[in-house]
Amino acid sequence: MKQAAGTEIHLERNRSRLLVKNKSLWRQLVQNFELFTLSLPGVLFLFIFAYIPMFGIIIAFKNYRFDKGILGSEWIGFKNFEFLFASDTAWRITRNTILYSSGYMLIGTFTALLLAIFMNELTKKWIKVHQTIIFLPHFVSWVVAGYLVIAFLDHNAGFLNQMLESIGWRPHKWYFESAPWPYILNLANLWKGIGFGTLIYYAGIVGINPEYYEAARIDGASRTQMAVKITLPMLSSLITILLILSIGNMFRGDFGLHYFIPNDSKFALPTTDIIDTYVVRALRSLGDIGMSSAAGVYQSVVGFILVVLANWIVRRINKDNSLF
């Protein structure tokens, strides 16, 4: 009897807690109705273009045929994944994808932070000028950027080769070599993406209470000391969150960068080929939709695992800096 009574009391307490929690959630919805309404277009966009298409994941496990459709195609299990990893280039494209993404993440974060700190020292007039200059390449497509790179690196009339010839050096056939492309791709990615990253970090710096800097100046701190002791610690949460999100995209390379900048040169493939470009070439030559879908699932699953793992590590170190 006592055990039954104790169980009833425990269930009643759980019901009470759920009711209080539901009332609290409803109260938050009512109080923040305008904000939730503003977020509705973004939520609908994600639902329509990110969650509903997830049904197509089953293509990765089927021998897809247009005449039979998604549901009618033959189920073949993990054979598409076996085909993807059985190729000789599987290790190369996986290695390139990880190394390039890591380089873009580390170099981009460091440079964006440095520029944001420098911009914070400028007057408002010059801040607007610099923001426009560094943010403008963000709106340039990789197709256009690829033509700009050709104008510099073309082995016949490229600007860079003409400069090398003018000082007595031999011109390079850049598109027939593989060694220089890791440097070229990192520079191209930095040129196009640095403006957006700098803007995010600068917005974080603007949000820091200026009283901290005023107190540091009174104590005789230099600008470098204020950047190291005030700015970076105050931005640690923002930096950590952006790094966690970048780690999640580590297996999802930038197709436009790696396809249009090297101009899809077969001689540069050893150092420019990543999973995305390999899948497009395989799809173009073989027409195997199932294999390309398998590569997309592989990227998404590994990206999800990396995000959860990175967040878990950050949470163990500092709970306040974790994403969830």
UniProtKB/TrEMBL annotation:
Its main location: membrane. It is found in: Cell membrane. Coiled coil: none annotated. It is a multi-pass membrane protein. This is Sugar ABC transporter permease. Residues 94-310 form the ABC transmembrane type-1 domain. Belongs to the binding-protein-dependent transport system permease family. Keywords: Cell membrane, Membrane, Transmembrane, Transmembrane helix, Transport. The lineage of its organism: Bacteria, Bacillati, Bacillota, Bacilli, Bacillales. The chain crosses the membrane at residues 35-61, 98-120, 132-153, 190-209, 230-251, 295-314. It comes from Paenibacillus lignilyticus. PANTHER family: BLL4140 PROTEIN (PTHR43227). It holds the Pfam family BPD_transp_1. Signal peptide: none annotated.
